[in-house]
Amino acid sequence: MFANLRNLTSKRALSVSRATFQGQKASPSGVVSSCPAGTPLNLQIKKSGKEPVALEDHEYPEWLWTVLDSRAQLKKLQEDPLKLRKKQLRSANRNKIKQNNFLSEI
After folding, report:
1. Can you give the residue range of the structural domain that contains 50?
2. Sign of the CA dihedral with 10 first, then 56, 70, and 78 last
3. Is the pTM of this model over 0.85?
4. Taking the C-alpha atoms of 31, 34, 39 and 43 in order, what is their torsion angle to the nearest 10 degrees?
5. Going residue by residue through the chain (106 aa), what tens digit of pLDDT does each one get?
6. Which of 1, 17, 41, 103 is most solvent-facing, going by the fewest CB within 10 Å?
7. How many domains does the chain have?
């Protein structure tokens, strides 16, 4: 039952995304930007600077499309064991700090 529901929702999501982004060219990896080219991004930091504008999907670097993909990030971490260990240590330290803070409130 859940498998059918999952297939139905994924098919629905794909059909909606195709209809939404029809006419926009996909990036080489198949991901489509949510901002059409030429849209002001409201990210102006300096007063004297110009307002940044969204570019075409093919103008962005390829790595940008994998930043939010957890599978791609995990694969990248597995290729570099030092970064993976560093991330594991940070997570363990964060959990230990949370536990110590909780115990200090008791």
Report:
1. 1-60
2. positive
3. no
4. -100
5. 445 444 444 444 444 344 344 555 545 567 788 888 999 988 888 888 888 899 998 999 988 888 889 999 999 999 999 999 999 999 999 999 999 999 999 8
6. 1
7. 2
Q: Are the beta carbons of 54 and 72 closer than 8 angstroms?
A: no
Looking at the fold, whether 23 and 45 belong to one and the same domain comes out as yes
DSSP 37-102: TT-B-----SSSSPPPBPPPGGGS-GGGGGTT-HHHHHHHHHH-HHHHHHHHHHHHHHHHHHHHHH
Tell me: do 56 and 73 sit in the same domain: no
Q: Residue 51 is encoded by which pair of tokens? A: 């307002």
